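Archive transcription. Copying these from loose printouts into the bound notebook so they stop getting lost. Printout 1 of 2:
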Amino acid sequence: MANHHGKDGTVKIGSNTVAEIKSFTLDQTSDTVEDTSMGDSMKSYKVGQGDASGSITCHFDETDTSGQGAMTNGASVSLALYPEGADSGDTYYTMTALITSVGMSVDMGSVVERSFGFQVTAGVTETTV
């Protein structure tokens, strides 16, 4: 079984690599609808519609205008998440994402961070480089 180190991950907005990525998440879920009938001894369910959302955390880089700068609150972006890197054969995920939150964390004892929340619209596609 293959596993990967998080240090190899990368994020792109279109073809532009986002600078100073610290972490990212992608959460995919499905609604369920109960279809239990009278007389059934256990509840039963059917899968409904899917949904996906996530977050990106970076060290703040104000010069990254085509990466961090493109993720403004309310923007629609072409997002690609590469959990194992962007080398030939690596798996990655593409989507159209609506940026739903933009935050900043400033602490005297650490590097300034930017955080971005996103909501996927129309699904996630898994492919390889």
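Printout 2 of 2:
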Amino acid sequence: MDVHTIERELQARISELIRLRSEGIDRYRVFTPFRFSDGDHLAMVLKQENEHWILSDEGHTYMHLTYELDEGDLLQGTRQTIIANALSAFGVDDLGGELRIDIPAEQFGDALYSFIQALLKISDVTFLSRERVRTTFFDDFKAFMIATIPEERRIFDWHHPELDRDGKYSVNCRINQRAKQVFVYALQNDAQTRDATISLLQFEKWGVEFESVAIFENQEEINRRVLARFSDVCDKQFSNLDGNKERITPHLQELMRIT
């Protein structure tokens, strides 16, 4: 099938505005009217590899998303689930960040339609509502702790098994196997910060030996008085996760080395 026939099929199947522009032998830039939320067009090329046609974004989609999101956030939590579901639903492969779809039996129109739908669905991660984004914070926190702390040295949602059988004073992640255990809190709002303050004070009252670390979603959103009280009882705080991973990791690793 020659390129003009392919272009006419794409126009008939999807939109009359679709155009193909040659960029070399058996390689064509695909122009469509579809855009990301910021107005940039989807980036796609149609090319032939080993006598087989494919559509590829050549890594542009993920690169575009990193304008608004940290690259690591695309690979974990709710965002990863959204992306994985989109790839699976539309038959798109992720080859090291390059998204591509095979074109079977010269079904160019169907393949392009599926590819466009997948890219648009993936770009929806930037539209997560504030509440939805909040759910990803705990997913991101948990994924970060799993990557940083060995499994045998961490417990999520820990509470003291003897002094707090009902789990009223829980810790998001406890690092053990050291003389003074480490309590790591993931905090999003005033209520969680108050609860963490109360928990730390209770642990002190019980005579539990520990060091505390707090990682905020955004510390600037915490009420100043709430934060001031919390600061009195917490040993180390990080204002956010995304911008402090390079600081949090060595701090936790240093605490694990202390016996």
